[in-house]
Every structure is written in structure tokens, then in C-alpha cells.
Amino acid sequence: MNRKAIAIILAAVLLTLGAMALVGGAVGEWLLILPAIPFAMVTMWLEPGARSGIFWDSAHSPPFLNALGLTVVYFLPGLLLLISSFFRGRARPVAGV
Predict the structure, then answer these.
(1) Measuring CA to CA, which residue among 41, 44, 71, 77 is closest to residue 55?
(2) What is the pLDDT of residues 30-60, one digit of tens each?
(3) CB–CB of 58/51 below 8 Å?
């Protein structure tokens, strides 16, 4: 597989996961909770007792991604991968050939 195909596949996976998180259901709930745990751990380490952060929120439940967190974790990387896959860099000469 070439680099373009891998980037398109990864972008499709990220965008699909983001859409599944928006729709909800059992899988969608886990897609909101699992990526929020590292964000919550870092925020609680910096500010003990924190119940929300820029990318996550938690009332009386496990931390989950809010709208900005969902965008940063799934949609932004997926769109950037998709856009970058259509731009081909300039061919560079190989030294010694």
C-alpha cells in the first residue's frame, strides 16, 4: 500500500468513528468515554478536583468528550489526513543515484 491509500483509509476510519460517536448507542458511548480518560487524567493532575476541561466534561459520571473534544480527537485529524492525501509533495532527487 502506498502512503496515499493508508492516509485515506485512516481518514475514513477516524471520520466513521466520529460519526458513530455522534449517533450514540453502546459503541458511541465508548467512543466518547475512552479518549476522554487521558484528557481527564492530565487535567486532574494539574488541577486536583477538576470536573471538566477544554475537551472533556464529567458531572457524576465517567469523563466524556464534549463537542470540541470530539472535533479534536476524530474530525480534525480525519479531515487533515484526507486533505493531505490529495496533495503530493515535490519529488526530491536522491543523492548518490
Answers:
(1) 71
(2) 999 999 999 889 988 998 888 888 888 987 7
(3) yes
Helix (H) or strand (E) holding 57, with range, is strand 56-57
CB-count exposure of residue 84 (10 Å: 0-12, 13-18, 19+): middle
* Residue with cell string 468528550: 65
Residue 12: how many CB atoms within 10 A of its CB?
A: 13
Query: What are the grid coordinates assigned to 96, written together?
Result: 548518490
Helix ranges (H only) for the chain are: 3-23, 25-33, 36-46, 67-70, 76-85
Q: Name the pTM for this structure.
A: 0.78
| Residue 14: count of CB within 10 angstroms of its CB | 20
Residue 66 one-letter amino acid: N
